[in-house]
């Protein structure tokens, strides 16, 4: 009987992770642009058109941080939202500003054996709460899969890929954390929610 319960719990957790991932990916697909003029146009279009993909909770027109990585990769952190369930979801857009396709480094996955077994992901990301002196790693489901965008091997020149990562939430008094992702510089981001 306990085996059935465990199997049901794993399926439920996996289904929740997939649902959250799809919701976050759907939010990351709306709008955005290649240069400074395009976001202004899409922002005015969404204001005129009423509700649209850019009206999601925790997202804003101006990114929280912009990190320049190797091979022309640019990571724009669009939101870091605290959920009542005890976790933080960081949403971002990974754009290839280079002239050639960019192959993502395996360092982004991190060096933990359990995460590495599940293929290419953004499982190496961390949040640092310097106030509490704690580091938060990407959450995992019961099968050890990281709760983050996975399976992205390359980003074609000029393409943008929506990315999400979920972390345990620091104390409610913490409103600012440092975001770290291997091969990218660190950035301070504000937590909303």
What's the topology here?
Blueprint: H1 2-28, H2 37-48, E1 65-68, E2 73-82, E3 87-96, E4 102-103, H3 113-116, E5 126-129, E6 134-137, E7 154-155, E8 160-168, E9 176-180, E10 187-190
Antiparallel strand pairs: 1-2, 2-3, 3-8, 4-7, 5-6, 5-9, 9-10
Keywords: Signal
Biased composition (Polar residues): 43-58
Region (Disordered): 31-71
Keywords:
193 residues, alpha+beta, four-stranded antiparallel β-sheet, signal, Secreted protein
Order of H and E elements:
HHEEEEHEEEEEE
* β-sheet strand percentage: 25-35%
The class by helix and strand makeup works out as alpha+beta
Compute the average pLDDT. Answer: 78
Q: What is the rounded Rg? A: 17 Å
**Portion in helices:** 10-25%
What gross morphology would you assign? globular
Distance between the termini: 39 Å
Number of helices: 3
- What are the segments in which pLDDT stays under 50 over at least 5 consecutive residues? 29-60
What's the main sheet like? 4 strands, antiparallel
Order of strands across the biggest sheet? 1-2-3-8
Supply the number of structural domains: 1
In total, how many beta strands? 10
